[in-house]
Amino acid sequence: MIRADLARFQEDNGGLRNLIRGLASQGFLAILVYRFFRWFHERGIPTQPFRFLAERLVEMTTGISIPVEAQIGKGLRIHHFGGVILHPEVVIGEHCTLYHDVTLGDRGGWGGAPRVGNNVLIGAGAKVLGRIDVGDRSVIGANAVVLSSVPPDSLAVGVPAICKPGRSSPPPGRA
Hints:
Layout: H1 2-7, H2 15-23, H3 26-42, H4 50-62, E1 64-65, E2 71-72, E3 77-78, E4 84-86, E5 91-92, E6 97-98, E7 103-105, E8 115-116, E9 121-122, E10 127-129, E11 133-134, E12 139-140, E13 145-146, E14 154-157, E15 162-165
Parallel strand pairs: 1-4, 2-5, 3-6, 4-7, 5-8, 6-9, 7-10, 8-11, 9-12, 10-13, 12-14
Antiparallel strand pairs: 14-15
């Protein structure tokens, strides 16, 4: 899983510089801590209170909250610093990209959490709320508020978001 997360930094131009930049990014730090504690969680090995302290430290230093209960596929990339909040029940597929200030959550304590497909790009400031599905290879535009399911290969934009068939940008990650 971690190798796939690291490989996402080689997609743009490759090279050692991009890899080092990726290793030093706040997004990768948050994902690394999540993957570490998720391994223990999946095996039923208790890690409290150490996990609590590590997760709070990551939240304070990166502004990214990824609970260990979230299910995240390989190759997740979080661009830029902070504001990424994930609900514990969220499911994220493989090779997805999240920009800053993204929330994947419920609707204020009810409504469940989203299920995000593979190769999905979620733009800066987007909010995806409730028990909805975001189809494979879709793009959620910046600052969109998504309250209903998004079909595969779609673009969701606006407040509240409306879906348009086809994407206006290249596919994130691997096709």
